[in-house]
Amino acid sequence: MIPYLMQVFGNQSRAFEIMEVLAGIKPVARMIIPEHLQKGVENYCTSNKIAFCWGAAVGSSSSGGYSSKGYLIPREQNKQTSQLFYASLTKEDADRAAFLEQRQDHLGLGNVLGYPSCCCSFFKKHHQQEEQKNNDFVLPAFDNTVGDTAPFPMNIFGRYFDFPTLSHCPCSFHCNESLKMAERRLQLIHEDDPRVSRSMEIHLRTLAVYSDKGIFLFKGTYAAGRFRYTSFMVDQSSPIVQQLHENGTLTLKDHHVVGIMEGKDARGMVFE
């Protein structure tokens, strides 16, 4: 099912969302659908008895890849762009999600989308400050997390490489309710295609580094605050790639990366 859904919806992230709706484990999926995919998405949902509705037009401040930073476009300026899309097994839930987003009721929308109540409150608390930044809530999640390790299903940084385990940013990397949601998604993926789930696990059992130099996933071993890596992947062109190839070790202290990746917003978490 995953390869076909990727053709219809354009990537794995949206494919996983619709799989959860079909399985009845996600009440509403909220997605941003590019203009060239919209007709095919409508046809698929109609054929599979998935209720849906369209929301506002959305522009992205990113030139490519994953971005949580976007902006609504006035209707008169909407020519060829992406659009918010809500899918559910019931039309009432899809319409309600669109209505709540239009009203900017973040707490209500999070509840309708099935996110944990603690994460909905977390989003509401930090929304104003995050809207002025990257709008991804990653730094507040780090601040709420004790220690430098977390379960691998909580590695939300997979979303930057199109293998997300969650649709939201958890209130911390130890949020139990979010962990249950991530494990359910991985199980659903495994039942459909074990190769995809195995590949995801390999890439998620990594040191994830979030920085202004890029989002990195390092493969290696961790002990006594030091992570020795053998390979890594990055979400964008980064000026420090060559240095990282030559280095081989990163040091973590209270999930701050010390050394070559050092910076005021450079954070790291080992997902095991």
Q: Would you count the extended β strands for me?
A: 11
Task: Give the total of domains.
Answer: 2
Main sheet summary: 7 strands, mixed
C-alpha-based Rg, rounded: 19 Å
Low-confidence stretches: 61-78
Key attributes of the depicted protein:
4-stranded antiparallel beta sheet, 272 residues, single chain, 7-stranded mixed beta sheet, alpha+beta, globular, 2 domains, 39% helix
Describe the overall structure.
The chain is of the alpha+beta class and 272 residues long. It folds into two domains: 114 residues, no CATH class; 156 residues, no CATH class. The protein has ten helices and eleven strands. It has a seven-stranded mixed beta sheet. It has a four-stranded antiparallel beta sheet with strand order 1-4-2-3. β6 and β7 form a beta hairpin.
Write the SSE topology.
Blueprint: H1 2-9, H2 12-23, E1 28-33, H3 38-47, E2 51-60, E3 70-72, E4 82-88, H4 91-102, H5 106-112, H6 117-131, H7 138-143, E5 149-150, H8 176-192, H9 194-204, E6 207-211, E7 214-223, E8 226-234, H10 241-247, E9 249-253, E10 256-258, E11 267-271
Parallel strand pairs: 5-11
Antiparallel strand pairs: 1-4, 2-3, 2-4, 6-7, 6-11, 7-8, 8-9, 9-10
